[in-house]
């Protein structure tokens, strides 16, 4: 198991470097990422390279047996470059050139930037590409984190070329963007621009393509550096991702990345931090269809960039690290090794804090190094799961570019449904339109706004072979090109679901209490759609959904939606499990089910609350065999099987008693004979008999 962090020795004098090595050995650090922001040191003037200082650092690390993740240093171009070539600086949608003095100050499309960045990557690869201690290449850093879109002339030129390659002729673009609306028609690609600031709403097709283009441009930057590296080095290559980050289609990037790696900073102030850790771990593991990933950045305690920077509670640093290992991580690394004393990240926690050795952070860092050193037999193993969640970056871009029909809550829906599986004890594989869906028993499709016929056919096929598919609104409102579905939304799924969406009828969100019936006689006599802030559901007592809700709690939980409701047209063979209650929605179908081959399709015409989601998952569980592989765990405990081990992760504030488990706990190196107490915010990793 790899353990370490970003190492920025250029911020420190030599005596500290010696202390660094001593402390790294003490903490069992075996991988550090170096040079991520070192361009100005590596190439202090155009074409003048300075590698002596890096040679020394690498030699010291190598002598101490600490592996190297060598960055190309290109995430922050030096001042000489932006002065010689101000055209590489990114431009905002209002035409403002951004300046030097922060980071990621480069245009995604600039051929000049790519030339200089690739030259540096190539020089580094020439010098260190075959170094025996080089474990990994780290290209750039968090692509798109700050500058995911550039509106400069270079970007506009590249966008036109990209569009011409995509559409071939301008009429195809006119059709795809619906340019007859508002007289936006083009007669040549030369007339097309990036979607810079406009008087009012932008063309959704243009915005969607610009997002796709920008993701491709970031990938092209990465590939240019990778090609320069490959001329001299065969070492594996990565770039650090950022979870569900909307601008970058990580699934499309994944084939070009040798080891998926991620940076992840759940807010310790949220009780959903554990859910988020589970979600991003499942996502990263899924990008290459189950291949383990590296966590390249997390914090030991607190970040500095939130309004309130809560630190992790005692035990949480190790617990969340093991949570990632449980779900497929083979490396646990932090930002950063030694806390900076100057600069924008001075107050971001690190492995060596300002206070030094005499601190909880340092004790935690040494403790985790010890724990991870016992995880050797976990490395490289897989996480079995039968539950999948379908997501698609392209659909999300269509959703984000669409004007209406309601709030865009796609990421919330993904998190909510993943959270439902998490709370029930199921790890989840993320799947994508190009994924193989066979082998999954339950497939959840939360708000896939734009869906192709191919994706719909795959879901149908999966259901016919026995999978339970849960589709939630709004899904398949557009086709994959962004064209609104006619003849009923979600019609592309009608063979699976037996429903078509006739209309969206969104509940209000806020109750209007400004009307005074004593004086506002006309308005007070009316009822507006916004007179309800949640839409309640009435569950049919003859359905399994009703019985499951009954079993969850007494009294039976009421279920509802908040932001979304629809009017459905339903085929005769569809069961209505629940209807909406109140106002114009009263009596309309809210949740439907249709048997389909060996499986079935559930449609949820609202953004269902927690109890409703949990109940539907349990209904699906009863119809499939997934429950057989679920590990029963007490409240607060997440139980995940990876390879030979069961990870028991107690997120709760109270000690948890786990019964019925036998084997050897890797953390305590002791035998487990059927009964185990896991203290609050701690874990056991039991290699089962
Ligand atoms: Zn640009």
From TrEMBL:
Residues reported in the UniProt entry to bind Zn(2+): 107, 150, 152
GO cellular component term, pick one: beta-galactosidase complex
Pfam families named among the record's database cross-references: Glyco_hydro_42, Glyco_hydro_42M
InterPro entries, per the entry: Beta_galactosidase_Trimer (IPR013738), Class_I_gatase-like (IPR029062), GH (IPR017853), Glyco_hydro_42 (IPR003476), Glyco_hydro_42_N (IPR013529), Glyco_hydro_b (IPR013780)
Protein name per Swiss-Prot or TrEMBL: Beta-galactosidase
UniProt KW Lyase keyword: no
Keywords in alphabetical order: Glycosidase, Hydrolase, Metal-binding, Zinc
Gene Ontology molecular functions: beta-galactosidase activity; metal ion binding
Single Gene Ontology BP annotation: carbohydrate metabolic process
Origin superkingdom: Bacteria
EC number: 3.2.1.23
Residues holding substrate: 103, 141, 305
Beta-galactosidase trimerisation domain span: 386-626
Organism: Bowdeniella nasicola
Catalysed reaction, written as an equation: Hydrolysis of terminal non-reducing beta-D-galactose residues in beta-D-galactosides
Active site feature: 142 (proton donor), 297 (nucleophile)
Domain Glycoside hydrolase family 42 N-terminal per the UniProt entry, residue ranges: 6-373
Top-level enzyme category: hydrolase
Family: Belongs to the glycosyl hydrolase 42 family.
């Amino acid at each position: 198991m790899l353990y370490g962090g970003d190492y920025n020795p250029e911020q420190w004098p030599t005596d500290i470097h010696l202390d660094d090595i001593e402390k790294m050995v003490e903490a069992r650090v075996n991988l550090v990422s170096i040079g991520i922001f070192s361009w100005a040191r590596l190439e202090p003037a155009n074409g003048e390279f300075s590698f002596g200082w890096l040679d020394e650092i690498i030699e010291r690390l190598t002598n101490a047996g600490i592996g190297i993740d060598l960055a190309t240093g290109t995430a922050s171009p030096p001042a000489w470059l932006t002065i010689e070539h101000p055209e590489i600086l990114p431009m905002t949608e209002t035409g403002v050139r951004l300046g030097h003095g922060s980071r990621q100050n480069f245009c995604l499309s600039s051929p000049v930037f790519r030339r200089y960045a690739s030259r540096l990557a190539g020089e580094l690869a020439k010098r260190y590409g075959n170094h025996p201690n080089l474990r990994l290449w780290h290209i750039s850093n968090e692509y798109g984190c700050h500058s995911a879109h550039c509106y400069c002339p270079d970007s506009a030129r590249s966008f036109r070329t990209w569009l011409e390659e995509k559409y071939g002729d301008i009429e195809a673009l006119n059709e795809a963007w619906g340019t007859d609306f508002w007289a936006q028609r083009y007669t040549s690609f030369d007339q097309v621009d990036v979607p810079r600031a406009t008087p009012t709403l932008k063309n959704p097709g243009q915005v969607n393509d610009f997002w796709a283009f920008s993701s491709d441009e970031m990938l092209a930057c990465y590939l240019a550096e990778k090609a320069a590296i490959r001329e001299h080095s065969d070492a594996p290559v990565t770039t650090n991702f950022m979870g569900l980050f909307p601008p970058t289609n990580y699934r499309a990037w994944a084939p070009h990345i040798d080891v998926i790696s991620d940076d992840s900073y759940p807010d310790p102030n949220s009780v959903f931090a554990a859910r988020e850790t589970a979600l991003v771990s499942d996502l990263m593991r899924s990008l290459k269809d189950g291949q383990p990933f590296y966590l390249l950045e997390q914090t030991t305690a607190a970040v500095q960039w939130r309004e309130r920077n809560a630190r992790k509670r005692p035990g949480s640093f190790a617990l969340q690290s093991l949570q990632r290992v449980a779900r497929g991580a083979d490396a646990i690394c932090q930002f950063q090794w030694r806390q900076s004393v100057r600069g924008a990240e001075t107050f971001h926690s690190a492995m060596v804090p300002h206070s030094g050795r005499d601190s909880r952070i340092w004790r935690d860092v040494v403790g985790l190094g010890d724990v991870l050193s016992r995880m050797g037999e976990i490395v490289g193993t897989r996480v079995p799961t039968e539950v999948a969640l379908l997501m698609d970056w392209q659909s999300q871009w269509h959703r984000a570019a669409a004007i209406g029909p309601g709030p865009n809550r796609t990421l919330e829906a993904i998190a909510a449904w993943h959270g439902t599986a998490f709370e029930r004890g199921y790890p989840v594989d993320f799947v994508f339109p190009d994924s193989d869906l066979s082998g999954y028993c339950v497939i959840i499709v939360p708000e896939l706004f734009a869906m192709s016929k191919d994706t719909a056919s795959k879901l149908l096929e999966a259901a016919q072979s026995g999978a339970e598919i849960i589709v939630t609104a709004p899904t398949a409102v557009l086709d994959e090109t962004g064209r609104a579905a006619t003849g009923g939304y979600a019609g592309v799924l009608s063979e699976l679901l037996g429903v078509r969406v006739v209309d969206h009828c969104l509940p209000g969100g806020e109750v209007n209490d400004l009307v005074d019936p004593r004086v506002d006689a006309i308005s007070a006599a009316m009822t507006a759609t916004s007179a309800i802030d949640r839409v309640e559901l009435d569950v049919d007592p003859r359905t399994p959904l009703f019985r499951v809700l009954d079993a969850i709690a007494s009294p039976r939980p009421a279920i509802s939606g908040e932001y979304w409701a629809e009017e459905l047209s339903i085929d005769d063979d569809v069961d209505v499990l629940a209807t909406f209650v109140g106002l114009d929605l009263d009596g309309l179908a809210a949740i439907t089910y249709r048997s389909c081959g060996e499986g079935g399709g559930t449609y949820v015409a609202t953004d269902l609350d927690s109890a409703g989601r949990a109940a539907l998952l349990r209904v699906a569980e009863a119809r499939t065999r997934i429950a057989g592989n679920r590990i029963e765990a007490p409240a607060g405990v997440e139980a995940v099987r990876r390879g030979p081990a069961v990870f028991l992760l107690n997120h709760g504030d109270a000690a948890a008693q786990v019964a019925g488990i036998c084997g050897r706990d890797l953390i305590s190196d002791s035998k487990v004979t059927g009964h185990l107490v896991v203290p609050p915010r701690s874990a056991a990793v039991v290699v089962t008999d």
